[in-house]
Write a structure and sequence with these properties.
The chain has 156 residues and is α/β, with parallel strands linked by helices. 56% of the residues lie in helices and 17% in strands. A four-stranded mixed beta sheet has the order 1-2-3-4. The radius of gyration is 23 Å and the shape is globular.
Amino acid sequence: MVLKNQEKHNLLKTSFLVHTFVKPKKRCSDDWFQNTENNWLTEDSKQSYKFSRISKFYTIENILDVNRFLQNHSNLIDVILEAHPQIRKYFPTEKLRLKLYVDPESSEWEYLIISICASPEFVDESLNQLDEFDENWWIDASLGVAVNLCIHLDFE
């Protein structure tokens, strides 16, 4: 049996779909295949790319827990990425940490904390800068996410 080029192409596509566990209910068309490919492959890679950018800006404690939390609260990712340049306007050189806090009394209550690690020598100045940061950006940016994300100073 000799297959024409178009038949070989369709057979390869069908074979690819079966081997990647994407099983269409009907025969797949080129449009369906392309739509599935875009949704199936690119959504995870976007999340992964954004998480790698976050890890460049922040020292992440308990990275697996933070990653899990961000998968469940993906609306926080863009806010965390946007927070970095905003924080840098007020704290240009301070170390930034991101960690998941789990309430010791109720393990269901958890949220992320961005810690701005400031020097204890500059407490008053740091507190004033945090107030300005809050007024100029965080109060508005935190609407809808403040229950899952906190930004504070940590003196070390």
